[in-house]
């Protein structure tokens, strides 16, 4: 009967030895984790102290601010808007905050700020390039990307107008759709040897073009179709510039209908105003609205 008892005692001893070994191993791992934790904390504290020291050291003071832009803004204006000046510590600068400030400038489309240690900073700006002015109480423009933007003060630009959106907020989908069509129209009209005065939008009639150097009104309708612009270019190439005021209806698929501009005005004074408008190319806003309504 003694052998079974001896076997049971041996098994318990083995289990105790195994458990003791695992407990020691866990204790060693725990000590290692604690040690590594202390090392990391120490490194973090020393790292923070090192960064704080570098942020105060004159060796990292910015001495060279390189500004790259492609438009109207001067380097001094860009630096001032970004809030940076020579002598500022390059490590302490908040690059993301500077980029956000620059993007809030009405003429800035994109802005990238990069650091080159130890003392150089790069400000790379891509500005908005307006292709048309939107007729509104405030100074609003359409840029080459199809975006509308407002500037605090009016600037002088020899640009065509986009009218008919005076009472509609710029951020609405309707305005974005209309401006997208106007942008396409401006792109297609570059093939013509003419000067464009205005693109007028009307909910019922769609797009209407007014030329600056000819007594011509072009009705395009609700959609901008490239094939119509090709056909209209051929017509204008053969159309005498001294021809009487004409309306071109380009809303059809494969033809353009030309007709004299109807002046259904009872008063001779109004007739003279419209004639003056046509002779000057449509540059008088008050007269242009009268022409739109009777063309």
Q: What features would you describe in this structure?
A:
The chain has 295 residues and is an alpha/beta fold. The protein folds into 2 domains: 59-127, Ubiquitin-like (UB roll); 130-294, Rossmann fold (3-Layer(aba) Sandwich), CATH 3.40.50.11690. Helix content is 42%, strand content 22%. The chain contains 7 helices and 12 strands. It has helices spanning 2-56, 75-82, 95-103, 173-188, 226-238, 268-280, 285-294; strands spanning 64-68, 108-116, 120-127, 130-134, 139-143, 148-151, 161-163, 196-202, 206-211, 216-221, 246-249, 257-260. A hairpin with a 7-residue loop joins strand 11 and strand 12 (257-260). The longest helix is centred in the first third of the chain and has 55 residues, at 2-56.
What's the arrangement of strands in the largest beta sheet? 6-5-4-7-8-9-10-11-12
**Chain-averaged pLDDT:** 79
Q: At the fourth CATH level, what is the homologous superfamily of the largest domain?
A: Cell division protein FtsQ/DivIB
Q: Helix amount, in percent?
A: 40-55%
* CATH level 1 name of the largest domain: Alpha Beta
Q: How many beta strands in the DSSP annotation?
A: 12
- Give start-end ranges of low-pLDDT stretches: 265-271, 277-295
Head-to-tail CA distance between termini: 123 Å
The 3D shape can be described as elongated
Largest sheet: 9 strands, mixed
The gyration radius over C-alpha positions equals 36 Å
Discrete helix count: 7
Number of domains: 2
**Could you say which structural class the secondary elements and strand pairing correspond to?**
alpha/beta
Beta-strand fraction estimate: 15-25%
The appropriate CATH architecture of the largest domain is 3-Layer(aba) Sandwich
- CATH third-level topology of the largest domain: Rossmann fold
